[in-house]
Amino acid sequence: MLGAADGIAYxxxxxxxxxxxxxxxxxxxxxxxxxxxxxxxxxxxxxSAFLGTNIVxxxxxxxxxxxFLSMLLIVGGALFIHDAPExxxxxxxxxxxxxxxxxxxxxxxxxAYLLFIAxxxxxxxxxxxxxxxxxxxxxxxxxxxxxxxIVAVVAIANTIGRFLIGSLSDKFGRKPMFILSYVVxxxxxxxxxxxxxxxxxxxxxxxxxxxxxxxxxxxxxxxMVGDYFGLKNHSQNYSLIYQGFxxxxxxxxxxxxxxxxxxxxVFNIYMVMLIVSLLIWVFIKKPVYKN
Length: 291
Prior knowledge:
The protein is an all-alpha fold. The chain has a single domain, classed as MFS general substrate transporter like domains (Growth Hormone, Chain: A). The chain has 13 helices and no strands. The chain is globular and about 60 Å long.
């Protein structure tokens, strides 16, 4: 129930915000996704304050307080939300390829599945950032304290990437930003994969690149789906393609388990998928609607 509520609140507010500002979809997506991440950061400290030192005793009270505060924020915020008005015909960009795809129509287009694959690919970065402290000790010889710091550094890079890549996508286009993100991510993953021992600066640079461009990519993705399939049915359409994020987030651990704990297999598969996704971004074109 908690996961479903999280998904509903995230997807509905994000899509509605994008519809309100169709000329600045990249920037609006930045703000929405950044605050989604900020919420988890802020509540970490709120929940810690409720838990105190006696976690076992205070856990029920912390959960109740967290739930009540979340309810106030969500219900209170919902009272101020209005559905974005439907775009008028004269407001639509004069583009012969423009069409407001329904979900059924979208699923008939190969672009939907290509976007899904590319999103699944970059979401493998979730696994790499999740084990960043372990990578630090194994690849760069960091001690426990230094390895713990890399988690915070990657999180900061992720947040900055959301703002920069999302804003730049409105100016330079979505595809150039995606191509840049996947190229740099490939270089960073290859650096981690083919080095038995990395210097600390190189390791930090590689992990910062992974976090930075992952944050930027997932921020721009909602606007890319809107550009390709329209904003009218954006909530339904993006919710399906967004499943690539969920599958990609789990893929790293699954691959590692199937590979018997061999991390190099995860790196190699990730690099192959990044190459495939790069080809997708180079050749993909906006779908054309045909009756």
